[in-house]
Amino acid sequence: MRIIVVQGDITDQRADAIVNAANSSLLGGGGVDGAIHRKGGSEILEACRKLRASAYGKGLPPGQAVATTAGMLPAKWVIHTVGPVYSATENRSHVLKSCYRESLHVADELGASTVAFPAVSTGVYRWPMDDAARIAIGTVRATPTKVEEVRFVLFTDEAFAQFQAQM
Ligand code: AR6
Predict the structure, then answer these.
(1) At a CB cut-off of 8 Å and minimum separation 6, what does 133 contact?
(2) Per-position pLDDT tens, the chain of length 167
(3) Beta pairing partners, 77
(4) Distance from residue 109's CA to the centre of ligand 1 (Å)
(5) Is the CB of 21 inside a 6 Å radius of any atom of ligand 1?
(6) Catalytic site residue 33?
(7) DSSP label of 61
(8) 30 lines ligand 1 (CB under 6 A)
(9) Which of 18, 73, 115, 124 to mutate to test the pocket of ligand 1 (most atoms within 8 A of CB)?
(10) CA-based angle 112:117:122, to the nearest 5?
C-alpha cells in the first residue's frame, strides 16, 4: 500500500472513498463534516438518517466506521468515523487508532482501492497535531488491507508539515 500526504480540501479529492471526521449523531457538524455535507448534498444526510433509524439507533460510537453514498462528491463512498475528543488526563489513543483501522476495514468491504483521510480529531476534538500524525500514519502502515493508496489530505500548513515529518 502507498501512503501519500497532500495539502488541500478533502471534498475536492477524487478517491473511491473519502473519510469523514464525524460525530456520533452522524447528522452533521462543522469542520470536515460540515464541508462534506455541504458539497456532497442532501443524499449523504438522508443516508445517515437511515442509519440512525436502523443499525445505529444510538449513533456511531467513537472508533467505529460506517459508509454511505458520497452524493455529489467526486468519490463513490463517504466512510464516517468518529474520533475521540482529546483528553490530557486519559489516554484515548486506542480509539483514534481504531478510527483508521475500522475505516480501512470498511474500505476493504466496499472494495475501495483509494481512500482519502483527514486528520481525524485534530480540529474541534483538539488532538495535538504531531501526536495525531504519528498515530494516523503508524496505524495505517500497520493495518493489513487491500486498499492500494491511502492519501492524507491536510487542510492547514501545520497539519501538512506534521504529517510529512512522519513519512
Ligand atoms: N478538508 C480537509 N481537512 C479539513 C477540512 C477540509 N475541508 N476542514 C477542516 N479540516 P474537525 P474533529 C481539518 O474539526 O476534530 C465536527 O463538528 C481541520 O483543520 O473537522 O474530528 C464533527 O461533526 C482538522 O485538522 O474534526 C464533530 O462534531 C481536521 O480536519 C467534530 O467536528 C479535523 O477537524 C469532530 O472533530
Answers:
(1) 119, 159, 162, 163, 165, 166
(2) 999 999 999 999 999 999 999 999 999 999 999 999 999 999 999 999 999 999 999 999 999 999 999 999 999 999 999 999 999 999 999 999 999 999 999 999 999 999 999 999 999 999 999 999 999 999 999 999 999 999 999 999 999 999 999 99
(3) 17, 69
(4) 25
(5) yes
(6) yes
(7) P
(8) yes
(9) 124
(10) 160
Alpha-carbon 6 to chain mean position = 15
Cβ of 120 below 6 Å from ligand 1: yes
Superfamily designation of domain 2-165 = Leucine Aminopeptidase, subunit E, domain 1 (3.40.220.10)
* Residue 19 Cβ < 6 Å to ligand 1: no
Q: Match 500497520 to its residue by C-alpha cell.
A: 142
Q: Does residue 40 contact residue 70 with C-beta atoms inside 8 Å?
A: yes
pLDDT on residue 151: 98
Residue type, 100: Y
**Active-site position among 9, 16, 33, 108:** 33
User: Which DSSP helix (H) or strand (E) runs through 149?
Assistant: strand 149-154
CA distances 38 to 33, 99, 103, Å, are: 9, 23, 22
